[in-house]
Amino acid sequence: MASPSSRIQVCGRIVIEADGVRREHLLPGQQGRTLFAFLVVHRAEQVTRDVLVDALWGQKPPVASEAALHALLSKLRRVLPCRSEQGAVHLELPVGSWVDLEAARDAIHRAESATAQRDWARAWAAAQTAMFTARRGFLAGNESAWVQGVRAELQLLYLRALETYAAASLGVGHTELATAERASRELVSVAPYRESGHRLLMSALAEQGNAAEALHVYETLRVLLRDELGVMPSAPTRLLHAQLLGAKDIETQR
What we know:
It is elongated, with a radius of gyration of 23 Å. Helix 8 (195-207) runs antiparallel to helix 9. It folds into three domains: 6-96, Arc Repressor Mutant, subunit A (Orthogonal Bundle); 97-169; 173-254, Serine Threonine Protein Phosphatase 5, Tetratricopeptide repeat. It has helices at 29-41, 49-57, 65-76, 100-116, 120-134, 145-172, 177-190, 195-207, 211-229, 235-253; strands at 6-9, 15-18, 21-22, 47-48, 82-85, 88-91, 98-99. The model has no long low-confidence stretch (mean pLDDT 92). The chain is an alpha+beta fold. The protein is 63% helix and 9% strand. The strands form two sheets. It has a four-stranded mixed beta sheet. The longest helix is centred in the middle third of the chain and has 28 residues, at 145-172.
């Protein structure tokens, strides 16, 4: 398969590579990077100039916002093709262009599908692609509503990738059990009320022979949910706890 003629990274540091040449340094400053990122994220849509003004300046646009936007778009066209027609603006990327956010969205779907099929090796690789992209963040320092929306999507994508990565590592087993434990601990740390992370951690610990520590994870979760939310762990979590208790009792009787 031929390499894509352009590779775009909008998560973390913006990178533009077209026909093997890096071009992000040609973007016109911070506003140019913001404009470019917005058009990439919304490249399947016909974005009006009013929407672009709001994305760039929010509730406090400059007096000559239309002229300022026109100047930014003119400079952006030196980086990549960008056409305007009937009040809408569209960034034109070559067919088959690779965009990191889109690749991460596709990767998490592939990872979750592979997990459902218990294809652990495929899930493991795809989850990493999504995880590495999602954790880079998006337009640091920009607090506009649309940017926060993308960050919220990346945060959820990161949690899904962590969960799938931990599950796949657990499924692979052997040398990947330590990886499953690390990923599960990270998931528990960033999403303490997400019970799946606790279950994965309990399972990873138990598979490594640390049943007592796995039971301690359950007790920590039980107390957290009781004290903070006034609820008990869900049925799947209680079932895993019972299975671990049963295994511990059998081991004690030997």
